[in-house]
Specification:
The protein is α/β, with parallel strands linked by helices. The protein has six helices and eight strands, in the order βααβααββββαββα. It folds into two domains: about 80 residues; about 70 residues, Transcription elongation factor, GreA/GreB, C-terminal domain (Chitinase A, domain 3, Roll).
Length: about 180
């Protein structure tokens, strides 16, 4: 799968209109996401085989919902797997981009998000939320610098957030195979 540099991605994303940005959201993934998606798809194949292996004697109706859920999840992952791989941002990149960990202050709440291509394959047990390019907050902060304020519209209501910090290595460090960990 061909890749693209992070600066080229950011330039392409920022030059697109809002409607085009929403369309582009599922088309970009980070290097670690390719392997995470493939791993989950293998697990789903195993689960699908187990479901099919348990068929017999009227069991079909009982497992239709489970089989459908596995199939739908597999299809949604396959869409992401066809996306373009975007290199991690350079440590010197000052703007929020795909692969950034961003701490924001929103209505006196402070929280941190990792901007990723396929949030559902990332662990969020550490309290850091993975967020895709589809998220209203991400659409508001991408391309901004620390200290800047961004407007975004979750559920149609306008909100404001200040970018408190940007870490360009944190998401990459979360990948045990990345150069940041070697």
């Amino acid at each position: 799968m061909p890749g693209v540099s992070n600066p080229d991605f950011l330039d392409q994303y920022l030059s697109a209109g809002l409607a085009a940005r929403s369309y582009m959201a599922g088309e970009f993934i980070l290097p670690v996401e390719e392997s995470l998606i493939e791993e989950e798809m293998r697990a789903l194949n195993g689960k699908r085989a187990a479901i099919l292996g348990s068929l017999g004697g009227g069991a079909l109706r009982g497992i239709d919902g489970e089989a459908l859920g596995v199939s739908e999840r597999y299809k949604s992952l396959a869409v992401h797997l066809r996306g373009t791989i975007v290199e991690y941002p350079e440590v010197t990149e000052e703007r929020v981009t795909l692969g950034s960990r961003v701490t924001v202050v929103d209505s006196s709440r402070i929280y941190t998000v990792d901007i990723v291509g396929c949030p559902s394959v990332h662990d969020s047990s550490d309290g850091i939320r993975p967020a895709s390019l589809e998220a209203a907050l991400v659409q508001g902060i991408i391309g901004k610098r620390a200290g800047e304020t961004a407007l975004f519209q979750p559920n149609g209501s306008q909100r404001q957030a200040e970018i408190a910090a940007i870490d360009q290595l944190a998401v990459q460090r979360g990948n045990p195979n990345s150069a940041a960990n070697l």
